[in-house]
Write a structure and sequence with these properties.
single chain, 351 residues, alpha+beta, Beta Polymerase, domain 2, 46% helix, globular
Length: 351
């Protein structure tokens, strides 16, 4: 596996974040800051791979129908987050390296959560939040664990110590909800994921998140505590019809446009152009991470210079099947989410 080492100090990384946070920074300064950020982001690949290997081993004991996916956060998303949180330092951003486990049910989530809390490793649990017991008011649910990477066994890997890796644990239903929000953001050119704009759609996804919580017999989303399960199902059904959710989401599903994609690859660069109705997928082997991250940066720079609607992300999964299921929003695929909505409507109408 090829690895990229951090080439800048944390103070240099934070200064780069300040440059990128300011929209009026000179182009030359932004270009230099982007180079710093790109290296800082890429250096997280070594620790995230360590966590990914451990998680896959543990998932064998949880069940067969589970998925592990990892991604390095998109530069536009990093810059947008810096803008939303003026006091945030780039070197302390917790989700630049994101690892996600999608399991079939809550029991699987709990078993993984217990494992991480009792694991015998040197990594330090830096932050945790159980958004299943305490859902976000947006409707988001899942468990987030942020670790500081530590490796006392090898001097060669000490340079990665204290880099942060976020581990997300989700049930299949929780993942359907989160992917549907991302898909709708792309279609509507909105920022629902960040809890911004389009009030009617925000309320729909919050209510739907609460309905999904009832289906999993978990606490409802804040603001919907007084509604019973049946009342929540009825509300979601009415809102879904009013917003024409079925019609909005069902007509988009995109195909992979690259005949060279095959199982056996490790990294995938997804480039989505919703206007053209296409998603390009480029595959890279395990030892080609440096090329992958270079192409990733080039794709982001092209997007920033052109259409802001386009998106690119570098991810890692075990297979093509896992790729499409872990990142359905990049294929504008909300089929399973719509199936869950249909189930809620049946419960609401008593059919």
């Amino acid at each position: 596996m090829s690895a990229i080492s951090p080439q800048y100090s944390r103070s240099q990384v934070n200064r780069a974040g300040e440059v990128l946070r300011q929209s009026d920074s000179p182009d030359s300064a932004r270009l230099e800051a982007t180079d710093v950020l790109s290296n800082w982001r890429a250096s997280h690949n070594y620790p995230i791979n360590t966590f990914q290997a451990t998680l896959r081993t543990k998932l064998i004991t949880v069940g067969k129908q589970n998925i592990v996916a990892q991604r390095l956060k998109r530069i536009p998303s990093i810059v947008e987050k810096l803008g939303r949180f003026p006091g945030m330092e780039l070197a302390r951003m917790e989700d630049i390296a994101g690892l996600r486990a999608i399991v079939s049910d809550l029991d699987g989530v709990q078993r993984l959560n217990d494992y991480y809390h009792h694991a015998h490793f040197k990594h330090v649990l830096h932050y945790e939040h159980d958004y299943i017991r305490e859902p976000k008011d947006t409707g988001y649910r899942g468990v987030h664990l942020v670790f500081q990477y530590r490796n006392s066994r090898s001097e060669q890997t000490r340079e990665y110590d204290n880099l942060l890796v976020e581990v997300q644990l989700r049930t299949r239903m929780q993942h359907l909800w989160a992917a549907a929000v991302e898909t709708m953001d792309i279609i509507l050119k909105s920022k629902l994921k960040s809890g911004m704009g389009l009030d009617n759609w925000q309320k729909f996804f919050a209510a739907t998140g609460s309905a999904f919580a009832h289906l999993e017999q978990q606490p409802p989303v804040p603001g919907y505590e007084r509604l019973s399960a049946s009342e929540t199902y009825q509300l979601v059904t009415e809102m879904s019809h009013d917003l024409a959710v079925q019609e909005t989401l069902s007509g988009y599903k995109l195909a992979i446009h690259n005949s060279q994609i095959h199982d056996g690859s490790t990294y995938y660069l997804l480039s989505l152009d919703p206007v053209a109705g296409s998603v390009q997928t480029r595959a890279y082997g395990r030892d080609s991470f440096q090329l992958a991250t270079s192409d990733y940066l080039k794709a982001e720079e092209a997007i920033l210079a052109g259409s802001q609607q386009q998106q690119a992300v570098l991810v890692a999964t075990k297979s093509i099947r896992e790729l499409r299921w872990a990142y359905p929003s990049f294929y504008l695929d909300a089929e399973e989410f719509l199936g869950a909505l249909a189930r809620i409507e049946r419960l609401a109408t008593g059919i």
